[in-house]
Amino acid sequence: MVNPGESVLVESPVYAGVIPMFSALHCDLVEVDTDAKGISSESLRRVLENWPASKPKPKVLYTVPYGCNPTGMTAALERRREVLSLAREHDFIILEDDPYYYLYYGDAPRVPSYFNLELEQPEVGRVLRFDSLSKILSSGIRIGFLCGPEPLLQAIDMHTAVASLQTPSLTQTISYALLNAWGYDAFKQHTEAVSQFYRGKRDVFEAAMKKYLGGLAEWSTPEAGMFFWFKLRLGADGEEGDSASIIREKAVEKGVLALPGTAFLPNGQKTAYVRASFSLLSPEDVDEAIKRLREVVLDAQKAQ
Ligand SMILES: Cc1ncc(COP(=O)(O)O)c(C=O)c1O
User: Fold this and answer.
1) Which one, out of 57, 118, 163, 187, has a CA that is 20 to 30 A from the CA of 193?
2) How far is the centre of ligand 1, averaged over its atoms, from the C-alpha of 152 (Å)?
3) Distance in Å, CA 126 to ligand 1 centroid
4) What is the average pLDDT across 57-86?
5) Cβ–Cβ under 8 Å, residues 106 and 100
6) Four-residue CA torsion sign, 171, 173, 174, 175
7) What is the CB neighbour count within 10 angstroms for residue 122?
8) CA-CA distance, 211 to 205, in Å (whole number)?
9) pLDDT tens for residues 236-253?
10) How far away, in angstroms, is 3 Cα from ligand 1 center?
11) Share above pLDDT 70 across residues of the chain, in percent, rounded to a whole number
12) By alpha-carbon position, which residue is closest to atom 14 of ligand 1?
């Protein structure tokens, strides 16, 4: 879909796993802002309307619309509609990477995927949707499935055949047997139970954040997925500060593992944001981890 030297649009911050993929294709990553409502259609419009006439326009936009990795945010319905209409207007394909779709636990009804929303339009074919079983059947099972325009699906099939022959037969067989035995209703029930499990984890994590990092960090509450994205209050007034050495060195020294926000910025900018995953820890460990993180932040503030 892209040739060396071409530009691709990526939400920013972006899932760190795709940065080396696009870099290996020698693409230029163009960042589109995001906020608590997901990708900013306004920022996207600005980028596209100011696109230099001398450069080919981007053909793809990469986004993680539910429980984004790393920001935890879920794209609002009106944003999705605007992004879809920009895709039509400026002729690009939305790469909808959605492994956390089934991990939605918000109070409001679930909004449709880009793929489903596009079906309401008179013309379809601008969404390539990626689902994953890694977050709902077994972590690391590495089985996904795709929906999208047939020529692209065929090209991906051919690519897989030359890149890795095929997805391992063992995990395919296990997944097939399980899904077949369950049927759709039991699959849906299972995913609802998984999402409620993560909702409980989110609540425990947020309670510890309020207890120890109130006034020291700011965040928006995630309604899907397994990530908390929060901004540490580090810098002197008016300065954002940088979480990198604090998280990579000081927090690690105290046995706390998180990722500094810079890992998710394609151009490696400094940022005070941090991504923490709440998928694995017990409530006691969450409490202890955030308590230790509080000490790290207080030390960093003192050192200013
Ligand atoms: C946004 C995103 N895409 C893709 C993946 C990889 O998923 P899979 O294990 O299905 O390859 C992850 C896993 O962390 C992810 O967060």
Assistant:
1) 118
2) 20
3) 21
4) 98
5) no
6) positive
7) 5
8) 10
9) 666 778 999 999 999 999
10) 24
11) 99
12) 69
The CATH number corresponding to 7-169 among 3.40.640.10, 3.40.50.300, 3.40.50.1000, 2.40.160.40 equals 3.40.640.10
| Ligand 1, pocket residues at CB < 6 Å | 15, 17, 64, 69, 97, 99, 132, 134, 142, 144
H or E element: which one contains 158? helix 150-163
Atom of ligand 1 nearest to the CA of 133: 10
Angle, CA 208 vertex, CA 207 and CA 210 arms, to 5°? 65
Q: Express each pLDDT in 98-128 by its tens digit.
A: 999 999 999 999 999 999 999 998 889 999 9
Residue 106 phi/psi, 5-degree rounding, is -70, 165
What is the distance in A from the centroid of ligand 1 to the CA of 49? Answer: 31
| Residue 259 identity (one-letter amino acid) | L
Q: Which atom of ligand 1 is nearest to the CA of 139?
A: 9
180, amino acid identity: N
Pairing of strands 60-63, 93-97: parallel
Q: Which CATH number fits domain 194-302: 3.40.980.10, 3.30.365.10, 3.40.1080.10, 3.90.1150.10?
A: 3.90.1150.10
Answer yes or no: are the C-beta atoms of 25 and 59 closer than 8 Å.
no
225 Cα to the center of ligand 1, angstroms: 11
Q: Helix 77-90 crosses helix 41-49 at what angle (to 10 degrees)?
A: 20
Residue whose CA is at the smallest distance from ligand 1 atom 12: 99
| Atom 9 of ligand 1: nearest residue by CA position | 142
Residue 132 CA: which ligand 1 atom is closest? 10
Strands (E), 36-150: 38-39, 60-63, 93-97, 127-132, 144-147
